Amino acid sequence: MKNLVFNSEEHTVKISFLDRINKICELIPNDKKYCVILDKKVANLHTEFFEELKLKDFSIFIIETPEKQKNINTCLDAINLMQKEGFNRNDAVIGIGGGAITDLAGFVASSYMRGITYLQIPTSLLAQVDASIGGKTGINHGNIKNFIGSFYNPSEIIICAEFLKSLNQQEFLNGFSEVLKHSIITSKTSLDNLKNLAGEINNRETGILLKLIEESIDIKAQVVTEDFKEKGKRKFLNFGHTFAHGIESINHDAPILHGHAVLIGMLMALDYSYELGFLSLDSYQEVKDVISSFNYDFTDIKLDAEGIFEAMKSDKKNTQTINLVLLKEIGQPFLFEETSSDNLQNFITKFINDFKK
Ligand SMILES: NC(=O)c1ccc[n+]([C@@H]2O[C@H](COP(=O)([O-])OP(=O)(O)OC[C@H]3O[C@@H](n4cnc5c(N)ncnc54)[C@H](O)[C@@H]3O)[C@@H](O)[C@H]2O)c1
Questions:
Q1: 348 touches ligand 1 (CB under 6 Å)
Q2: CATH number of the domain residue 336 falls in
Q3: For ligand 1, is residue 67 a contact (CB within 6 Å)?
Q4: What letter does residue 231 receive in the DSSP assignment?
Q5: One domain, residues 75 and 148
């Protein structure tokens, strides 16, 4: 077990790193009542763990379809269960599942009696390296993702790499985009490390993954600790995201994996950084080489240059100009305000045409 502690504005969050699922329950102290909000798929795939949870005196609230049930009705059902079972301010919520579950459970914890202790056990790579860090909780409302939410940190996060063995390959890569992003915006050394370990990563070697997850979390935690409310440096974590939001918008009818959209978005940001003369050809090529070591499948992603551009323009954050995070060098992101819609539109058209070839 390894602990990493970082400070949020409110308190210290303890992060424990484990190689085996059967060590998790030992870390949960017996000093309070717990409501476990649990992903059904995780329960079914890891039955011994589920049996162990059932043996504890926990209230278990199972979610069958996480993203679909990430809404106010599910929150109310969980809150009603806790109220009925006499949970008070000294008790706690545990969220076990991917990012949809940890966002939802975090929101329940932040709302119940104005906030009770929250313990997070993320089981997808995306949740481990991204959703669990930074204190954003949320639920979807109407058609809008994360429309209702709060900033609320867990008291503890338990990361167990053994969960990752049961993720399908594209779900794994979905989360791996965040690891890649954290490396690209941090340093060449960090990116070289991913290149050298590509074989072990693709084989999901638990020890290697734990180290990489820890590094990736460390990067996000440092940025978030410095800029909890996203006023400055935290914006660099949006590398690739402005383009990705455009891609996700035009795929709204058949939603795609966020990490895959971010990966294409990062390729676009890299290409644009190179085209505008900020990034050298060598660095541009180097990042592309690392990315190509991983087998992303983009076949179901609809890419239409005009649609992507229009969606980026209509984003509420982009009023007069379009805000992008670009790269000066590997490890040196910066904020760029694009004032020329024409330049950007031409670039997107060219990129999408080349990408489809
Ligand atoms: N709070 C934040 O800062 C933040 C950041 C990024 C994303 N998010 C949110 O996270 C969600 C996306 O996260 P996600 O990709 O984990 O989605 P998810 O929770 O929907 O999980 C994806 C799929 O993986 C399954 N799964 C989870 N763990 C598994 C395991 N160990 N083995 C096999 N299958 C497993 C789930 O059942 C689901 O089918 C979105 O709701 C997004 O809004 C939040």
A1: no
A2: 1.20.1090.10
A3: yes
A4: S
A5: yes
User: Domain total for the chain?
Assistant: 2
User: Domain for residue 178, yes or no?
Assistant: no
Domain limits at 95? 2-166
Instruction: Check pocket membership of 248 for ligand 1, CB cut-off 6 A.
Output: no
List b or e across 303-327, with b for residues whose CB sees 16 or more CB atoms inside 10 angstroms: bebebbbebbeeeeebeeebbbbbb
In this structure, the number of other CB atoms found within 10 A of the CB of residue 89 comes to 10
Amino acid, res. 117: T
Say whether both 100 and 212 belong to one domain.
no
Nearest CA to ligand 1 atom 7: 131
Quick check: 324 pLDDT over 80?
A: yes
Cα distances (angstroms) measured from residue 335 to each of 216, 236, 284: 21, 7, 18
Q: What CATH number did the domain enclosing 149 receive? A: 3.40.50.1970
Looking at the structure, do residues 148 and 227 belong to the same domain, yes or no?
Answer: no
Instruction: Tell me the per-residue pLDDT of 201-246, one tens digit each, with 9 for 90 and over.
Output: 999 999 999 999 999 998 888 887 776 666 667 889 999 999 999 9
Does residue 20 lie in a domain region? yes
CA distance 345 to 185: 25
**Residue appearing with tokens 């239409």:** 304
- For residue 141, give the 3-state DSSP assignment: strand
Task: Find out whether 217 and 159 touch, Cβ atoms under 8 Å.
Answer: yes
